[in-house]
């Protein structure tokens, strides 16, 4: 009976100790993987924010340029309207 119990207990405790240490190791590996994933996610979102900042700057410059063009076109339009009114007045007087 002792020949069966001692080796079985020895194997059981060896397996238990191995399982405990491997559990700790796997938990540590899981935490390391989570940290790596978090670092990669932060890098990904930081790159996205940098890209958005560049696009926003370009869009702001485009809007400023378009506003300037809009003002110029509105001036030209007003000048043309004034000139058209002058022509209408001249044509009205001649008839």
Annotation keywords:
95 residues, mainly alpha, 1 helix
The succession of helices and strands, N to C, reads: H
Helix content: over 70%
Discrete helix count: 1
Question: What spatial form do the alpha-carbon principal axes imply?
Answer: rod-shaped
User: Main sheet?
Assistant: none
Low-confidence runs of at least 5 consecutive residues: none
Give a description of the structure.
With 95 residues, this protein is mainly alpha-helical. 98% of the residues lie in helices and 0% in strands. The longest helix is centred in the middle third of the chain and has 93 residues. The mean pLDDT is 91.
Q: What is the strand and helix layout of this fold?
A:
Layout: H1 2-94
What is the structure about, briefly put?
The protein is an all-alpha fold and 95 residues long.
